Amino acid sequence: MKTKDRALEIVARLRRRYPDPRSELHWETPWQLLAATMLSAQCTDARVNAITPELFRRWPGPEAMAQADTAQVETVIHSAGFFRQKAKSLVGAARLLMERHGGQVPAAMADLTALPGVARKTANIVLANAFGLQEGVAVDTHVRRLAGRLGLTRSQDPARIEKDLMALVPRPDWGDFNHMLVLFGRQVCPARSPRCAACELADICPKRGVKTT
User: Fold this and answer.
1) By residue range, what is the domain housing residue 84?
2) Which of the listed residues 131, 154, 172 is the one where a domain comes to its end?
3) Does residue 69 have an active-site annotation?
4) What pLDDT digit, counting tens, does each position of 65-120 carry?
């Protein structure tokens, strides 16, 4: 099976499994999604969801966060890991939003990636989920692992992986493809001991990097 055909079949099968895939992060506004996604780096969604209620209660939007004491933000997000850098990025991003965008999260890749602590992965998630804009495929640890195992890329570089996936997956599916691979990676194809016998992709998966006995 050609790589393009395999990619389309993977999308179709995952779409049947996840007809309405969504992020497991809890959010209501573009700012909340942006902040939660920034916190999720090297941190589980469950941990982020335990942190954000208090974070958003104290600093509900960019205007409040821009005036926050970074040390206080550090205290609230401490359990997210890398809390000093994340707090600095949250406050810095909020200040830039106030200065350049009237306190609104912009719906443009260039504007988002100009914010402290925001790279393409975070920007792609915000654009797809908060604004319905498909500008790329967010590449996190699950997407990187599964894209390689499924033979959709031979690279380990997130930028290269994203380009490979964008060439294979139909644009309307870019945002959902991230969610589907994340969910599938957690439920069926984790880093260790993937459940190949229970996998609906097993017959078309080259299982690159998977140790077999």
Assistant:
1) 30-131
2) 131
3) no
4) 999 999 999 999 999 999 999 999 999 999 999 999 999 999 999 999 999 999 99
